[in-house]
Amino acid sequence: MTAIQPIPIAGVHHTARPTWKLAETVHFYRDLLGLPLVHAISARGWGPEDHADFLHFFFDSGNGSTIAFFYYIGTTPPDFVAVRDDYRYRASHTAWRVATREDLLACRAKIEAAGIEVKYQIRHEVIESIYFNDPNGYSLEVTWQVRPFETVDRQDATRTIEAAVALENARGAAPFDAIDQVWTRKGAALAAEFDRAAEVS
């Protein structure tokens, strides 16, 4: 496969979600977490006629990034934003980086001192994270990366995703419903790589 040049991005500028809790959201991010409110767009509805007037406001989340919200004036939340105790709902989240484990623990202490419940703290592979929710029920993460991603990580990621994509594409022929299938297919592909390397040598 020919390597493609990445698009010329310089990191995340902002993530954005809707809120129907304006005062609570501002209090949480600005007053409890201490993220400065740095910009607000106030506008009449854009695009279709049924688009509400809105506020779009941004909090500084460090290193040139922001977290932003839309407050749609005079509207009510649609069903699809209702908070659910479901891992698929929690999959949409914002994760902030800290430089050291000490910083991670300091964040946890500050968050808990502000009366915010830390749901859990987990070490998974190369990152350790704490998780908590904002007033809208959105999941937030603060993470410390234990070590940089290396060549072996990129190679393993490629093998893993290629195996999963192949299984997804073949789903009509057989069900794809367990991680063991990914591991088995990845293992077979890796064994084939070793065999080819042995033939060359």
Keyword list:
single chain, 201 residues, alpha/beta, 2,3-Dihydroxybiphenyl 1,2-Dioxygenase, domain 1, 3 domains, four-stranded mixed β-sheet, 5 helices
Describe this structure in words.
By secondary structure, the chain is an alpha/beta fold. It folds into three domains: 66 residues, 2,3-Dihydroxybiphenyl 1,2-Dioxygenase, domain 1; 66 residues, 2,3-Dihydroxybiphenyl 1,2-Dioxygenase, domain 1 (Roll), CATH 3.10.180.10; 50 residues. It contains five helices and eight strands. It has a four-stranded mixed beta sheet, covered by helices on one side. A four-stranded mixed beta sheet has the order 5-8-7-6, with helices on one face. Strand 6 and strand 7 form a beta hairpin. The longest helix is centred in the last third of the chain and has 22 residues. The mean pLDDT is 92.
Q: How many domains would you count in the coordinates?
A: 3
Poorly predicted ranges (pLDDT <50, ≥5 residues)? none
CATH topology heading of the largest domain: 2,3-Dihydroxybiphenyl 1,2-Dioxygenase, domain 1
Using only CA atoms, what is the Rg? 22 Å
Strand count: 8
Secondary structure category: alpha/beta
CATH architectural group of the largest domain: Roll
The helix content is 25-40%
| Spatial separation of the terminal alpha carbons | 22 Å
Portion in strands: 25-35%
CATH-level-4 superfamily name of the largest domain = 2,3-Dihydroxybiphenyl 1,2-Dioxygenase, domain 1
Rounded mean pLDDT is 92
Largest sheet: 4 strands, mixed
CATH class value of the largest domain:
Alpha Beta
